[in-house]
Design a protein that fits this description.
This protein is mainly alpha-helical. It has five helices and no strands. The chain has a domain at 34-116. It has helices at residues 2-10, 15-19, 25-51, 58-80, 92-116. The longest helix has 27 residues, at 25-51. The termini are far apart.
Length: 129
Amino acid sequence: MAIEVAVELAAAGEAADYAAGRAAPLTALTEPMQAVGWPAWMLGFVLLALGGHATAPGAVRIIGAVGAAAMGVGGILVEGLKIVDAGPLFIGGALLAVWMTWAGVVAVRSRRDTAAAPPPATRGRGGRI
């Protein structure tokens, strides 16, 4: 998706041609890239949500995975097959955001707990301080 966004930025100069119905090859390139990019990117999030057992409770991980799957399917249907009516599938991002927020809070809290623990060098024999 980062490469696709770079193509979108480069295609900005084609806006007038696209609006006038003239050839705009970089603009045309973005759709097939998104048709592949959205499902691939969202598959990664599905795997992270379902595989990250310490990131959130099971129900939250499933909610995130369902949201990511919806967005991936949306990419195929909207960008690949031109079924614009499937656009609401991208609302799945709200479900994905639930898991992402929960996982972020868990990550920050675990770093804070780790930072509060005394470093191993201050421990004496037997693990006592």
